[in-house]
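re: ur question from the group chat, yeah i did fold both. here u go
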Amino acid sequence: MQALLKLSKAIDWLNAQVGKYAIWLIFAATLISAGNAVVRKVFNYSSNAWLEVQWYLFAWSFLVAAGYTLLQREHVRIDVLNSRLPKKVQVWIDILGFAFFLTPLCVVVLYLNIPMVIEKFQSGEMSANAGGLVRWPVWLALPVGFALLLLQGWSELIKRVAYLRGQGPDPMGRLGEKSAEEELAQELLRAAQNNDTAPAAGGAR
């Protein structure tokens, strides 16, 4: 188990580094978008190549940061229901999700996509737009992103199994803060509890 936990830490480090630098892709896309808008308005000129660079960068930032997002527990979760369950039940739900949903999905995407990327690289497929870019760099973001997501899913799976075996810390609270969904779930729970107690207080008066 200790060897698997070391592997988990290495995966966490990898996705943390990717997430740290992925923000620069968004920054670059924002600058290019602003520059395109200014040039189009001021000089009445537009370039398909620069327009495509924008969504290439956005695609890369969105896909390669998927593993980092999972590391930070910021993927969409149904915490309104999940947060009411016992901790071990929550951990088991995560284990089943990582093992039987996330892993097969990522494997299928990689299996179908990698040959497609190789084909597009070998053919040198270009954009259908005039002055557009070669296509394989943006397609490459898919296998890279899903590979990082798959690795992070395995890392999270290792941490949850270690927790159930008493060999690891609580994986649900490792970040020291609640996710946005968890905070919303708690607010909704408090509001429901306040609504339940309000009629009783009114009756007492």
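okk and heres the other one u asked abt
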Amino acid sequence: MREVLKDLSAAVAAGHTVGLGTVVRTFRSAPRPAGAAMMVDADGRAVGSVSGGCVEGALYELATHVVADGTPVLQRYGISDNDAFEVGLTCGGILDVFVEAVSRETFPGLQRVADDVDAGVPVAVVTVIEHPDPAWLGRHLVVHPDGFSGSLGTERADHAVSDDVKGLLAAGRNTTLMYGPDGERRGDGMRVFVVSFAPQPRMLVFGAIDFAAAVARQGSFLGYRVTVCDARAVFATKARFPVADEVVVEWPHRYLQAQLDAGHIDPRTVICVLTHDPKFDVPLLEVALRHDVAYVGAMGSRKTHDDRMERLREAGLTDVELDKLSSPIGLDLGSRTPEETAVSIAAEIIALQWGGKGRRLSHMDVRIHHEPLTDGARDDPVVDSTAP
């Protein structure tokens, strides 16, 4: 939903009613995760994608119909066949899409959500996608770490759902939750979809070298908020790293410790140490490897790696802490240029995030899309390990 939020809020602020389709559940090899969205504005313009092109035509027609009718629809798109190729997923996946008409009247809190996301304030949107009372469908609850606004239908439901959603928001997860019709924790009848807008995950790149510029570009492309840090002011300049969100002149370990103390590092943070100079990277890695982050990689030759590991052991790091270090950094792609090396680093980060092996898919008989951590269908029994 993040990819359409700016256009969605602008259209609604202008007084228009917009058709919005959001992926709320996926099975098998569906190409987009839960939370992916497509909107159709008042001028008939489509923004976003829910399947990478397989079902967008059918969804466009459905969204237009929902805007005219005003009744939300939960639609399942499945495996295509010869008779319905245009509305099927050629990848063999299945996805559920909730389609609703969004306006000032149906979602008065939308502008605040857009403002919070733009400002990096954590916020989650809860939408009722199933309920025995049709009047509940499409109602929204906006949840912040310290409270909520809007209503799903009753105070009991609002409090029960908001309490659960705060945990999902802290983890940045999108998922579906099931409750009884009035928010009862034991029971079924009401299903809600939660989309969490956590602040961008961070990528910290240490070492203002040409490889760092390429890694910063990859990080920005993948959606990270990128910081480049180096103690040498002559190299750490915005002119050399125009894509970075910030360029910091400071000793790397001091900067990282200050960010940790300020609470600006979380388990989604990735750290790329490109200095390959012991006076910089050893103190930095002492700090990084003792904290919970998504990835710590360090550049250097095998000889540099062995020397670095010895120094880190002398500094008191345990084998468990050292096992978190990816060094030499990146996957074995045969990379030579800074740009190729940056791709290998990005590939390793992605592989560790989703559990990939970094092997050629053409040599493997497994599903392409790994189960996303944000997908509410993770435990669903519908699985086809041979799906392409």
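fwiw on the second one: The first helix runs from residue 2 to 13. The chain has a mean pLDDT of 87. idk if thats what u expected
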